[in-house]
Amino acid sequence: MGSDGSIILAFDLYGTLLSTDSIAKELTKQFGQEKAATIAATWRKYQLEYTWRLNSMNHYLPFSTITQRSLHHAIAENKLELQSRAAASLMSAYDSLSTFPDVASALQSLAKQPSITPVIFSNGTQEMVSNSVNQSPNLSPYSGIFKQIITVEEVQKFKPHPDVYYHLADKVGKTREQMGDMWLVSGNPFDIVGAKAAGMNSVWVDRGAGGWVDGLIEGEKGRPDVVVHGLDQLVEVIEAGKISTPGTRIWVD
Predict the structure, then answer these.
(1) What's the predicted TM-score (pTM) here?
(2) Cβ(176)–Cβ(166) under 8 Å?
(3) Conformation bin of residue 142: beta by default, left when phi > 0, alpha when psi is -120 to 50
(4) In the beta sheet, which residues pair with residue 14?
């Protein structure tokens, strides 16, 4: 909990609040609808893969650089070409991604919850995340509910490295012994497993309702504490008073 007794909810940004699939709209302008979805998925795949490879090599590049380079990787893999002006336009569009449909109403409800301290917790650079939060047409009206924007930039490592979760704790005034006082909210399984390994509680947003299939870590430590199919259901769990209890396991149908 926060210093005022509130529950700290650390929201992942890309893939949880903002849909990286929405970049396909901009890609459609360059390559047509048929190729846009494939490029968007490939771009996201290499964006994440690059962060994991950098962690393994004990090397760091800003997330904005990774995003740009993974874009060119995706374009090359699809045997296409992208002019520099078009690439700049796509990078700019990344600062104004659309939210998932359930986000706006959920944030409206969370703003009325005095027991909740929401923060943004992202792989992005401070500039990139601040731009996204403040320029996204769907997210910017609710930017004020987030008490902090916390990124991995200072740590120079990426999720799911444990140091990034300890950095989150430092930023919200928690010690490593108090990791269980915080809840990660993420749509990314690798993020959930990383947070659990560092001692946090976790809420997995399973919008596709495909169920938890990640098998890296066996047992309770390798699974989310709460599974919801949208952030609106997260609000229901909070209002029921079930989110504050470490070790609680809840699946919302």
Answers:
(1) 0.93
(2) yes
(3) alpha
(4) 18
